[in-house]
Write a structure and sequence with these properties.
40% of the residues lie in helices and 23% in strands. With 268 residues, the chain is of the alpha/beta class. Residues 114-122 have low confidence and may be disordered.
Length: 268
């Protein structure tokens, strides 16, 4: 992972996530590409009658957005910047998704708590990108601070058929010498917590497993993260039916807003 794609809306959450991305990029020796997609302005009733005026408005807005982007970047001491992309668009998530196909081994973006209509919109954008981006997505909560990646917690169903994902997770962790901890949440009271359980076929020499008894997957993961130190929560979202994808989308969105550690999402 040598290139990070960072979408920004210049919000406080974006500033915090960018500081996180900078610290991570330095540890990985990675470049950061920045992208900002904005909604173009129009001059009301003049839209159909004065094309020259509309053109001037669009040029001015483009210049203003480019200036905001450079002001955003210049607040931080980081020189390993790749592409800087600013342009108008109607469907922000699709534009960023297409950009992730062209460049980016990892997409990092900020998230905010779901408190009002604006927050819900930002949360929805984050969730859509987690489901559609062409690379893994690291969602940074507004209070998260980079402290390395000593431990990554992977919420698992104990279905290890997709070794490609596990290899990706192991590769990411190798940049930071991370320890990968697996946690499984179940409502089956017969299952007990087990530590240091080794399963064959996984791309790790030593693996730590924990089983949490809780009827709610989200509460069980929160319980584990409260009791164990971790720098990121990893989720794998495979291609499934529409109903299952909606469930996983909702779950991912709720986890984004219910934990103060970054949410690391891989998908097919």
């Amino acid at each position: 992972m040598k290139k990070i794609l960072f979408p920004t809306d210049f919000s406080p959450a974006a500033h915090n996530a960018y500081q996180y991305a900078i610290a991570m990029a330095k540890d990985m020796d990675a470049k950061i590409d920045l992208i900002h997609i904005y909604t173009a302005s129009f001059a009301g009733s003049d839209f159909y009658t004065d094309l020259s005026k509309q053109r001037k408005i669009r040029i001015k807005q483009q210049e203003e957005m480019e200036e905001r982007m450079h002001n955003f970047i210049n607040q931080y001491d980081f020189k390993n910047i790749g592409d800087i992309v600013v342009y108008p668009g109607l469907f922000i998530d699709q534009e960023i998704m297409e950009r992730s196909r062209k460049s980016g081994d990892l997409l990092i973006m900020g998230t905010k708590g779901e408190r009002n209509a604006v927050d819900k919109l930002i949360g929805s954008l984050t969730t859509r990108l987690m489901m559609t981006a062409a690379c893994p997505v690291l969602a940074i909560p507004e209070n998260a601070k980079y402290q390395g990646m000593k431990t990554i917690t992977y919420a698992t169903t104990f279905d290890f058929k997709d070794t490609h994902f596990l290899e990706q997770l192991a590769q990411f962790g190798s940049y930071f010498n991370s320890s990968i901890q697996f946690v499984h949440v179940t409502d089956d009271p017969r299952m007990e917590v087990e530590e240091n359980l080794y399963l064959e076929g996984l791309p790790f020499e030593a693996i730590h497993f924990s089983i949490i008894n809780n009827p709610s997957v989200m509460e069980g993961i929160d319980q584990y993260l409260t009791e164990h130190t971790s720098e990121a929560l990893a989720l794998y979202i495979p291609k499934r039916s529409l109903w299952e994808r909606l469930f996983h989308s909702s779950f991912s969105k709720k986890m984004t807003f219910h934990t103060d550690i970054p949410l690391f999402v891989f998908h097919e």
